[in-house]
Amino acid sequence: MSNSNQAIVTEPSIVITPEALLEHWQGHRNLTRRMIEAFPEDKLFTYSVGGMRPFSELVKEMLAMAVPGIKGLITGKWQNYDEASAATPASKKELLERWDEATEALNALWPQIPPHRFQETDTAFGQWEGTGYFFIFYFIDNEIHHRGQAYVYLRSLNIAPPAFWERQ
């Protein structure tokens, strides 16, 4: 017979490892890269539908969050979020180069995230309060949201976008 006043102590279960989370995110990043490649050069920086920003501006936002966000998560020191301070790439080639540089930086920085930082509450970019894992989910969700806008753009241009489930 157990004592009902006794607290049951259990270890938190891990649903996904940090390595698997990075792999999941990089799968999304691979798909977003293919979306950038699918855009005609002359539409990437200018085309929009319904008042939404051009896809190049959406990609610029993703880049402003990814590496600076992981650096903030590692150190607890966050830059102020100001995507406008980053120069807009002049070509699709330059945008893809920045994307690839960010991908490599994420791979290099990710192992430096102290495990406790995933659970700690912080204020990202001086604006948003949440836990480390919340911020990572936000970065991924933001990318998926903006990639969805790019699907609309490509379809309206009669260009078949990459399949959303092909992330390799």
Description:
- With 168 residues, this protein is mainly alpha-helical.
- It is built from 5 helices and 2 strands, in the order ααααββα.
- The protein has a two-stranded antiparallel ribbon with strand order 1-2.
- The longest helix is centred in the last third of the chain and has 25 residues, at 132-156.
- The protein starts with 17 loop residues before the first helix and ends in a 12-residue tail after the last helix.
Shape: elongated
Number of strands: 2
Count of separate DSSP helical elements: 5
What are the low-pLDDT stretches, counting only 5+ consecutive residues below 50? none
Give me the secondary-structure category: mainly alpha
Which sheet architecture does the biggest sheet show? 2 strands, antiparallel
Q: SSE string, helix = H, strand = E?
A: HHHHEEH
**Average pLDDT taken over every residue:** 90
What proportion of the residues form beta strands (DSSP E)?
A: under 5%
Distance between the termini: 53 Å
- Output the strand order for the largest sheet: 1-2
Q: How many whole angstroms does the radius of gyration measure?
A: 19 Å
Which percent bin holds the helix content? 40-55%
Assembly type of the chains comes to: single chain
